[in-house]
Amino acid sequence: MGIKGRAAVFLQKFQPLEFWEFELPEVDPDGLIVQVTLANICGSDVHAWEGKTPRSGPTILGHEMTGRVFRLGKNVKTDALGKPLQEGDRVVYTYWHPCFRCPDCLGGEPNLCTVKAARAGRDRSDQWPYFTGAYADYFYLRRGHYVLKVPDSVSDEAVAPINCAFSEVIYGLAQGGVALDDPVVIQGAGGLGIYACAAAKAMGAGKVVILDKLADRLETARQFGADHTLNVEEFTSAEERVEAVRELTGGGARVVLEVVGSPEVIREGIHMLRPRGTYVIIGNIMPGLTTPFDPTWLYLQSKRMIGVRGYEPWALRKALDLLDT
């Protein structure tokens, strides 16, 4: 009798997850199987359960996780950085696995892979390799998966979310072009926004301004590096908020990072930029939400607006390095 593992399986929106058992598959000679020790609930998991980002069951939700190597493929000797790897070692890894063959993968942007050989929280779990999401005893990693050994100095609680939130804001800030002493504005002080404060400071940003409507979140953001916190409900209009930001940043931010998830903030966020600044959208992940848009908001001052989904693997390494310092 082989080893079995449990999983909390999603079948359809708004329905309780069901606990199923699956046979643990054989490890790929060039892959490994992780025994999950901690998994988080990301906001996108809630959206999936609510049907706002549709999923087809049965699948195992969850992608923010960490664990220990349970089975190591015979050809795997090290992690992605060349550090020796053995069964029992703590690891963190990307929650998606690219195909390595499409134009995006071959162009060095595996996070944009349109094929995605494996995607935590999306692949069906009633077929091999079964353990396809974080809410299970195990997670199956295929050959070539990007895996990093976790140092003893970093706890499971700290490392579990970095393969999503922390890595994505690091990548988003880099895509926005944050450089030494650049002012940065962050819209939203949830998990992504708080991580973004720390990441921006670590990347050498100057003043970091963050906006939210919850006082406790803003206080936490200050502890993570925000220089100025603005409660949006203390202003009577978007124009007042824009003026406050422009005053605090000396004329506007070089980069504004949107991690709110509401398209209504886009207009004022663009107006918080200085000329040639970049507006980075990360939080608006649900289709069907719209907002009026005037192209001259960008054109007249040569501003840019980009969307960032996921991250390149180097961002996960950077996130782990920051936790280990």
List keywords for this structure.
single chain; 10 helices; alpha/beta; six-stranded parallel β-sheet; 325 residues; Quinone Oxidoreductase, Chain A, domain 1; Rossmann fold
Question: Overview of this structure, please?
Answer:
The chain has 10 helices and 16 strands. The relative contact order is 0.13. Helix 4 (about 165-175) packs across helix 10 (about 315-325). The strands form 4 sheets. A 6-stranded parallel beta sheet has the order 13-12-11-14-15-16, sandwiched between helices. Strands 9-3-5-6-10 form a 5-stranded antiparallel beta sheet. By secondary structure, it is an alpha/beta fold. The protein starts with a strand and ends with a helix. It has 2 domains: about 5-160, Quinone Oxidoreductase, Chain A, domain 1, CATH 3.90.180; about 165-315, NAD(P)-binding Rossmann-like Domain (Rossmann fold, 3-Layer(aba) Sandwich), CATH 3.40.50. Strand 15, helix 9 and strand 16 form a beta-alpha-beta unit.
